[in-house]
């Protein structure tokens, strides 16, 4: 029996700033003060490219920084289960603009993006859109029968 040795990924610092949670019927901050979520969706991890859209033209850091400058405090990142599979490959970004994503799996790219959101004080909502990449809205169940996710 062979044991796979995991490839070390990037190291991250946790940014435990003002987290959100529910209190009764409200979403509140860590002090139980009602929170204001000003969010936008950044699609792509749920697609067959397994990376947020637009990274063929810009770096993820400039996109996130612009979202922050425009007054957003939250980014929703939809993803597919397929993105989490070993063998899923990131397609399409300009790696000269996103050189810290070179050679990373889709999940490791998501980690880099979520980590940078923490650096600039943005929150992230991860949204599982579909089991199969590029298949949002075409699945009758939240899972694919007989699959091993």
Describe the structure.
The chain has 149 residues and is an alpha/beta fold. The protein is built from two helices and five strands. The protein has helices at residues 60-69, 106-120, and strands at residues 21-23, 26-28, 39-41, 74-80, 123-130. A three-stranded parallel sheet has the order 3-4-5, covered by helices on one side. Strands 1-2 form a two-stranded antiparallel ribbon. The relative contact order is 0.20. The mean pLDDT is 85.
Sheet bearing the most strands, described?
A: 3 strands, parallel
The amount of helix comes to 10-25%
Shape: globular
- Structural class, from secondary structure content? alpha/beta
Give the low-pLDDT segments. Answer: none
């Amino acid at each position: 029996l062979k044991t796979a040795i995991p490839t070390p990924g990037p190291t991250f610092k946790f940014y435990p700033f003002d987290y959100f949670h529910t209190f009764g019927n409200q979403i509140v901050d860590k002090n139980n003060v009602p929170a204001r979520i000003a969010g936008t969706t950044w699609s792509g991890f749920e697609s067959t490219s397994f990376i947020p859209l637009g990274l063929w033209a810009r770096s993820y850091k400039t996109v996130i920084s612009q979202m922050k400058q425009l007054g957003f405090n939250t980014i929703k990142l939809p993803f597919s289960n397929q993105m989490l599979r070993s063998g899923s490959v990131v397609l399409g970004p300009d790696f000269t603009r996103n050189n810290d994503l070179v050679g990373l799996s889709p999940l490791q790219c998501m980690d880099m993006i979520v980590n940078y959101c923490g650096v600039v004080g943005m929150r992230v909502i991860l949204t599982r859109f579909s089991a199969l990449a590029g298949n949002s809205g075409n699945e009758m169940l939240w899972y694919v029968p007989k699959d091993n996710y």
